[in-house]
Each structure stands twice: as structure tokens, then as C-alpha cells.
Amino acid sequence: MTTQVRHYIDGEFVLGEGSKQIAVTNPANNEIIAVVNAATESEVLTAIESAKKAFVTWKEIPVSERARVMLRYQHLLKEHHDEIATILAKETGKTFDDAKGDVWRGIEVAEHACNIASLLMGETVENVARSIDTYSYTQPLGVCAGITPFNFPAMIPLWMFPLAIACGNTFILKPSEQDPMTPQRLVELFEEAGAPKGVLQMVHGDKVAVDVLLDHKDVKAISFVGSVAVGQYIYKTGTDNLKRVQAFAGAKNHCVIMPDANKQQVINNLVGASVGAAGQRCMAISVAIFVGEAKEWIPEVKEALAKVKPGLWDDKDAAYGPVISPQAKERVLSLIAQGKAEGANCVLDGSEFTVEGYESGNWVGPTVFTDVTTDMTIYKEEIFGPVLCCMTADSLDDAIEVVNNSPYGNGTSIFTASGAAARKYQHHIDVGQVGINVPIPVPLPFFSFTGWKGSFYGDQHAYGKQAVRFYTETKTITARWFDSDIASGPNMTIALK
Ligand code: NAD
């Protein structure tokens, strides 16, 4: 029997009437493993109404009690780590180890949310004028919503709702319709952690559900992660509707390799960062720029990638799994074909790769292009597949110029033994997250995830202190308490006296 994925509306797990039915498939063979009824407009409206009602009481719950819900939640997530990773691996095709990593990077944010009282602390100054004190509080906004992508179905929802809720908000999650079973388990465990009815809601579906959240006056803030086109739409529509919006979008991440770097470290790191998770990470390295003599290493990088074998999620020898859908595979293959047609040299071609017995799956083997130039489509487009584009540059300055001319700015890395080169790179590069001899610099939750340029629309970033600012409003209070009758007369100026 096919599993039915459920919404979580007004404290109940429900199948919903559905504006249409969406199939969830195993990317290794495209068999249907579950179905979900995409939420109707009225179902989303019910969720908003319930979240609005729940806010009235949830915001009054003492901060340490809210933190205790998060303490129980992070504990439950750890207890169920392998179980969640198995669900995730089955619906995304990720290898079990990679699926565990996806869950773990989310658990870390839930752990950080346990520290919410310190994160919410305001500021105080005594005696800003005679007998007058000023202090500030951070207060929650109300109903917040999150719209998440397919590629991290545990980590990215967990970037959002634990912190938003710990701040005192209520939250509506609209996960990717391509892998909704992992978020469903996350939400079930949140209920088990003791969150009161209505504090968290989950509606599945597509644009229909998203548009209701974007238009509704009672949704105060929207957090989005996904592709550039949808991110721009959500940012423009949400801000036009006077909401607070943060939209994390697509990427094209460059790795600059200096000739003084440790060659073996470069090769190992490039292999994992370019084709790991089938290249479906927003922090994947998709462009490698070899500076000067480092270009001699390209054949060895290709050889190392040629040894990488994709496979099933529970195959311990598999380095990565299939891409998410036949449409995603089609897109990657057409970009590979375009790369060849536009004159890039395809030295390793994964277009024909398949896994025996799973020929109908969305497999793409590791693919390497050399002689890539910035006018080619494979350079300009986010491929989101296991494809590495190799370029060369005469100097670090030339490499920096290429990276800074890219419209994206999610992440970048430099591999070098020179502190001076690394310092120059970190200072001059127009990218929000920089790795030095580290390929995928996704910051831990006490920092924030700080993509720049076309990879992010908004001001406050994900998790860490910036997310607390995003999900709260600051109230500043200036107070004087009289301990005797003071008859100094009215103050006719703006100065505090
Ligand atoms: P997507 O944009 O197709 O979908 C993301 C979410 O938006 C889903 O929940 C989807 O249902 C919804 N959506 C899709 N089309 C919509 C529309 N027309 N109107 C309203 N909502 C719509 O992205 P995806 O394919 O699920 O995820 C991959 C993309 O996400 C890549 O571009 C990747 O770089 C990006 N990503 C970025 C980050 C980051 O931090 N910058 C992190 C992860 C993924």
C-alpha cells in the first residue's frame, strides 16, 4: 500500500482534500513510494488561522519553558537520527552517511535553539538622562512561514522552525513536495517534544499553498530556500505585501587552487565537494580554477573522479546517489550536451551512467569539463548535478576577478599554503562564505549562513544571531520612576532631561 503523507494543521495530522495529488518517488527507480494531497487554499487558511490563535498563548510561555521544548526536541531528533536518515535516504536517494549528515546539520540548529534566552537578550543603559534608564526587548513577530527545497529535507526546515518558535512565534512549514516524508517525521517528533497545538503547522503542496502564505496579511515573515527564479518571485511578492522576507537562492561556487597547495588534499576535497550528493548541494564546488602550474593537476582530478561510483542509498560503497527526478536528470544531461556543443572539453562523461537493475533511475555519473570559459552555458547556469567545470588562470588576481564577476555569491574556497594568498582572497572576494583549505564552508549554528549577491535576497541570514533578529522585533523602553515630587515644569525639547 502506498504511504499517504499528512499535513499538520491545527494540531492534527490530516490527509487533506487536496487540490491535486503529488507522487513521491524513489529516485533510484522512479517507483512511487508515497503520495501527498497538495494543500488547498482553504487548508492553508485554516493553518494560518490556527497559528494566529496559538501565537496569543505561545508568546506568553516563559522563555525557559520554550527552551525546554527545544531541549526535548533535539534529544528526540538524536534518538531518531538513523530512522530519519533512512526515510530521507529513501526519498532523496542520498547515501545513508550523507543522509545522516543532512539530519545532523539540522540537529545542531535545534541544539542552538535551546540557548534561546541568551540569544533573545536585549540591551540596557542606566541613566541615559537623570534618573532615566533605557532598555530593549526582543519580541516575536507572530505567524512566520518557511518554504524549503528538496535537497536538504531535514537540515533546511530545521534551520527555520526551531529558532522561529523558540523566539515565541508560531510557524507554518511548506516543505518541498519532492521529499515531504522527512519533514513529516520532523514535525511528528516536534509534537512529541510537547509543543502546544497550533504552534507548528505543516502544509504540503506547491505554488497554490505558497501563494496563500505570500498574500495573507497575518503571515508576518517568510523564509525561503530554493532556486533563483522562485527566490526572486517570493522576495518580490512577499516584500510587496509588506512582509519580512529572507530568500536563499541558487549558487555557482568556485574553488581556487594555488600551485603551492597540497595536491592530494585538493584532489580529495574537490572530489567530495563537486559530486557529493550528486552535486545537489547549494555549497557544492561546481567550478575549479587552477592557477598557474596547478593546471598540471587536472588530469589527476579527472582520474580521481572517474573512480567515484554512484549507487543505492544502502550500498556502503556508493559515493553518491541519483539526482532527485527524471526532470532534474534531463536538465543535467541537456547542460552537459550544451557544454560539448559550445566547445568545452568533456574529459569525463557521466551521461550514460547507470546502475545494474536500476536502469530507470535518475543516474548521472561524475562528469568533468576542461577549457571552460565564462561565456559558456555550463559556466553560467547552476547545473545542480555531478559536474565539475575546470578553468585556468594565470594569477590569483585573475582568479579573483572571475569569481567576483559571477552573479552568485554563496560560497567559495581557496587551497593554498600561503597565508598571504589566503588573506588576500578572503578580503577581496565578493562571496559570503569562504573556505581556506576547506571545500564546503557551511558555518555552524552559532554563526549564520551568509550567502551574498544573487544567492540571497534579504538582510538577515539563516540561523545564529541573524535569524533571531529576523524572527523578532526590537522594542526599546525609556523609563523614569519618580521617588519624590519633582516640579521642574514641562520639557519643551526633544532632549531627555
Ligand atoms: P525550487 O525553487 O524549485 O523549490 C523550492 C520551494 O519552492 C519548494 O517548496 C517548492 O514547492 C516551491 N516552489 C517551486 N516553484 C514555485 C513557484 N512557482 N511559486 C511558489 N513556490 C514554488 O528549488 P528546489 O529545486 O527544491 O531546490 C534546489 C535549489 O535550491 C537550487 O537552486 C539550490 O541552489 C537552492 N538551494 C539554495 C540554498 C542556499 O542556502 N542558498 C540551500 C539549498 C538549496
UniProtKB/TrEMBL annotation:
Enzyme category, top tier: oxidoreductase
The Aldehyde dehydrogenase domain, residue ranges: 17-477
Keyword NAD among UniProt keywords: yes
Top-level taxonomic group: Bacteria
UniProt GO BP: L-valine catabolic process; thymine catabolic process
Annotated EC: 1.2.1.27
PROSITE patterns registered for this protein in UniProt: ALDEHYDE_DEHYDR_CYS
Listed InterPro entries: Ald_DH/histidinol_DH, Ald_DH_C, Ald_DH_CS_CYS, Ald_DH_N, Aldehyde_DH_dom, MeMal-semiAld_DH
Protein family according to the UniProt entry: Belongs to the aldehyde dehydrogenase family.
Name the record gives this protein: methylmalonate-semialdehyde dehydrogenase (CoA acylating)
